[in-house]
Each structure stands twice: as structure tokens, then as C-alpha cells.
Amino acid sequence: MSTVQTSMPAQAAAAGEPSFWSRLSGNRNWAAFWFMLPTAAFLILFLAYPLGLGVWMSFTDERIGRAGAFVGIENYQWLWDDSIFWLSVFNTLFYTLIASAIKFAIGLYLALLLNRHMPFKAIIRSIVLIPFIVPTVLSAIAFWWIYDSQFSIISWSLIKLGLIHSNINFLGDTEWARASVIFANVWRGVPFVAITLLAGLQTVSPSLYEAATLDGATSWQRFRFITYPLLTPIIAVVMTFSVLFTFTDFQLIWALTRGGPVNATHLMATLSYQRGIISGRLGEGAAIATAMIPFLVAAIAISWFGMQRRKWQQGSNND
Amino acid sequence: MSMFNTDRRSLLKGGAAMLAAAATMSSDQLLGYAKAWAQTSQWKPEPGAKINLLRWKRFVEAEDVAFMKIVDAFQKANNVTINVSNESYDDIQPKASVAANTGQGLDMVWGLYSLPFLFPSKCVDVTDVADYLGKKCGGWADSGKAYGMLNGKWIGIPVAATGGLVNYRVAAMEKAGHKEFPKDLAGFADLVKGMNKNGTPAGMALGHASGDANGWLHWALWAHGGKLIDKDNKVVVNSPETAKSLEYVKGLYDNFVPGTASWNDSSNNKAFLAGQLHLTVNGISIYVTAKKENPQIAEDMNHAHLPAGLDGKTRELHLGFPILIFSFSKYPQTCKAFTAFMLEPDQFNPWIEAAQGYLSHFLLDYDKNPVWTADPKTTPYRSVAQTASTPAGEAQMSENAAAAIADFVVVDMYANYCTGREDVKTAMASAERAAKRIFR
């Protein structure tokens, strides 16, 4: 803060003995504090306060319409041996893991395809974005009809083709229901991954590929030793977001299954809503929501620490 | 004089209502009546009152038209404004809950089930309105009292209920060897089995369908003598009676059309109207729609109460529609006056007629309404209040019982067993634990 030091003597000379106020008003840190205050206030008011309130609520027995009393970890104790809660934890992890992995694989593949030179490149790239643009609830309702136990277009077509004899129980059977919601989530999430990775691909200098080709590298080698290392930072960011979005998914599940059949697709977010808002136990709903935080922090931590490493940043082997 | 002032907006509204008039009293007559009523009413609306009323989104269009006519007449006669907004079944409770929690936004909610019991401290005591209506309209059915009263005080007025009764195709039932709709549990199981054999299956929701699934599964539990809680709110769901009902429901489920575990409240309506489902439990809305769009199905279908339980009594969980006034409303007198006004015979009779059986009354005098006899197929819905029980069963309706319904404790128990996820003992134990969590 050498600048602060230099500006002060000038003022001091003008005012004789510098008052506390004049010293303060000349202090750049003090000014910076005021410049940062609006942002800080915004963040505290809209991010930290609701989060803190939610965590506090999870330690109370608050219900809708009336304030709660502090009950310690009672809500968590009840959750600890609540089979539906643990089922929802399993479902959430399963859903996040599988859906994110598929989204990454398809997204990367699409990005590599779209990165090639082809006719109508711009139009095709915009078409890929469509699932991402459609409001979630709309696409969820479309999927709801596609998966309907009586009127499913898929069942209908397969029956007409003579491949199956009765309707597929898409949302009524545990395994089918899980697969169906994951498919819908993947359909929605792929464009985000694909387009972002495509943006990353475009920053890779073509000269690297030219040099590699001259050295006789195969296309797999070009991907493994040029594309993949240079893409790592983008992959880390994209997958962090993708995991966060999937982990906290709510609309799709709520519109499709309400967590059914027999809670096989209840995610922590939907269970928290059902317990907190629908049945009015705000405290318990908040406890479930709070229980999501460690998982989310872990997901962020992994990518955060990863990004700190030069290997991730620059794709070379020097740590 | 100010009472006769009408602005352009209300004139337009009045015009629309007149065009849409479907019931007996014309708008003008209704307005005149409303003015006379306002003069003698014991509740004097606050001058210039503005009320925000939230109601469930209609299933039968004519019902909504008749309701808006009542609102309109009341507005003009009292020079107040009532803003009516509609929300679907699933969204009404979260909205009401938010209003209750923040203390603003809404004055009245016409909601579902046991809404007032979710936040009883936020509801205005409407005992005076209930007493007035009871005296005037032949008294309240017991189920009406159970739906409206908490500790001797009325916290909401049960306006009506939509009965969850059996909707069945007559030809399919006869083909399955039943001339008449069965009156006992064994006969009903046999019917469902027979219909499945003939390729005309039955189906009832086992998914998270707040109205449909809760309705018939509570009937099944009660019919076998099982209950979630006893009179003193003690959790007693883990019992031999419950086990029997689980086996019974499993027997039905195995003969249902596939997919009922994923059904929501609209699934059975769609399937029935498409001719793929031949028996289900629902309000009268399927029949009302069929009359308009699919007369062959309407011709061939009928309604019946679910069969009596082992003790010979029929106890059903119907979807009650209570109206409540928030304690933070600035216009409680207006809200009370409106509640009383809409349940008066002159308004209520044309209204339930317009609803064509979708709304069943809790005030006994309305048994005489011609809607229940003009078409014999609607007659079973007349006695909905007689068979109705609140979600609490024998116990006093409470916040906890309302929460148990909303958390699908009973529905999940049956679904867990029927889909093979858990055996009888585990299913009951899980439900017991879930219920204890709520009734702690």
C-alpha cells in the first residue's frame, strides 16, 4: 500500500495536524470498502442470509405459518434412520453420476463433430441448443406424454411395429422410471456441455494439429495429446456446473413423477419440497436441503483444487 | 346512493355473466337479491374493501361461471372488489402456505382437503358464519363439522366436497358377471378380477396423486378396520387389520391396468375417456366430460359408492373444499359476508346444479336439490357428506393429519407393498415410522 503512504503527507501538510477523519478519507482501503459495500450487501442479503436462514431453520421445528423453537439436531436424527431420506440420497447420487457421465460423453462427442468443417455449420450449431432453450417444465410435460403409461408414443410405435405386445410401464416401474428421468435430463443437459466444450475446442490453435499431423500422429493421438489436455480447464468448469445443475434438479422430476413410483425417483430437492412446503414442515424440509450442502461443497472443492494445479490449467505434466 | 353506482368494468363483467348465465336466476334478479341480502346481513362489509381470493381451478366450466356470477352480484351489491385467481390443485397449497407464512397477498383461500388445519392460527374464527348457515340450511353433516372445526371453533367453512366414488362401465361390469355393483369387499375384488380377465381392466392411482390415490387407499385401510392413528393421535398403523388391507389392495393392483403406480390425478380421467380403463375412483368430472365429448361412454357408465367395510359401514375420504379467511386480512367482515352469501340457498342451489354433481354439499338441506335426482347417475354423489371422513379418521382433524396426507404416508405404504419393494411387515413398519415422525 505504498500509494497510501505517498498521498498522506501531502494532505497532512495542508491541514497541519491531520485529523482522524482526513486521514481516513485519504485512505484508499477505506474508499475501497465503500465501493465494495453494495456488492457485499447484495451478496449477504440474497445469498448468505437465505442460506444461513435455511441452515438455522433446519435446527428448529418451524412449520408454515408459525415460528419454530430450537430443537437441536432432532430433525437430522429423524432423517438419519428414515429410509425414504436415504433412498433419496442414493437416488440423487445415482441420478447425478449417471446423467453427468452420459452428458459428458455425448456432449464431448457432439462438440468434436460440430468443430469440423461442414455445410450449414451455424444452423446446425443453433439447432443443438434447442433442448436447452425450451423451458424445463414444457419439456417435462412433453416427456410426461412420451412416457405415459397408456398413451406413450414409444409404446404405440413399438406395438405397431410388432416388437412388443403391451405398453412399456415407463414411469410406473422403478428401473424404467429411473432410466426415463435420466434420459430426459440428459436430453436437456447435453447442449450446455456440447456448446461450451465447442467453445473450448475453438481456442485450440490449428497449428498444433498441423505439427502433429506432420509428425505422423493418428487422430486418436491428436485427441489424446493435444485436444484433451488443452480442453481440461473447460471440462473442469463445465462438469462442475453440470454436476451442480443435475444434483439440484427439481422441475423435471416434479413434473414427471413427483418422486414416484414408490419414491424411486425422489431426489433430495423434491423430498425437501414435499416435506417442507407441501406438508408444511419447514424445519424438516430445510434439514434435507441443508444435507445437500456437503455434497455440493465436495463437488465444488474437487474442481476448485483441480483448477489450482498447473497440470489442469495448462495441460502439461509439470505440477 | 353509492350502492347503485356501477363503473364500466363491473358493467362489462355483468354483461359477460349475463351472456354466460346457465342457471335459474338472471344477473339482474341476483343483483337485486344480493342488495336486499346485504341490507339484512349481520356482517357489514368494510367500505371499499378489496379482497384477493384464491380458488382451485375448475374442472367443470359451468360451475366456474355460476361461481363468478355470485362473486359479481356480491361485488355490486356491496360496492367491494373481489379479485379471484385460480390455481391448479397442486399449486394452491404452496401458494396459500406462502401467504400464511408471509402474512400478505391473499385474504381468502378456497382450497382442498384440510388446508385450514395446516395453519390454524392464521385462520379467522368463522363460528358465527357456520352457525348462521347451519341454522338456515338444515344443519351440518358430521363430516362437515369434522372438516371445519378445531377445538370447538370453526376455522374454515367446508363449502363442498367432490366425491371420490367408483366410476364404472356398465357393460364391462355385467360381462364380468355382476348384474349390480357389488356391496361388499369380496364382491368388489371379484369384479376387478373378472374385468381384468375380460380385457376391460380397472385401475386406481397408486402414485403421488393427492386426490385420487389418497382417496381410495384410505377407504381400503378403514374398510379393513385399520387406521393410521387412533382417537388420541397415537400411531397404530402397524396392525393385523392393516396387513389384511395390504393383501386386499395387492389383489386389486395385480388386476389393474399396468402403470397405476405412476398415475397422477389426471391419468385415470384420460384413460377412462379413451376407453382403455373401465373402472376407477374419481369425481364426477369424467362423466361430465363424457356427456359432452364421448356420449357412448357416458351412456354406458355409472357411479357407485365404494363397498362397505368389514363392519358393514362405508367410510370414504373425499376431497373436501374448505374456504378460509386469513387472520391478517384487513376486511374480515367482507370475507365473512361473502362466505355466508355464497352458501345461501339462492346462490348455492344454482351453483351446485351448474357443477352437475362435481360439488357435493355438507349442509343437509341441499339434499333436496334437483341435480341429485334429475339424472340418476349423479345420485350417488348426493350422499358424499354421509360417508365422508377426514384424513384423521376417528381423531380430531389436525395439522399433523394434514401433513400425513400431504406426505403420502398411507399411499407409499400400499405402493411399497404392491410394487414388491417391501414386504407387508416392512411396508407397515416404514409407514409407522413415517407417521411417528409426523405425530411426534
Automatic annotation (TrEMBL), chain A:
Its main location: membrane. InterPro entries: MetI-like, MetI-like_sf. It is a multi-pass membrane protein. The keyword Transmembrane applies. Keywords: Cell membrane, Membrane, Transmembrane, Transmembrane helix, Transport. GO terms for biological process: transmembrane transport. Belongs to the binding-protein-dependent transport system permease family. It comes from the Bacteria. One of its GO terms (cellular component) is plasma membrane. This is Sugar ABC transporter permease. Residues 89-303 form the ABC transmembrane type-1 domain.
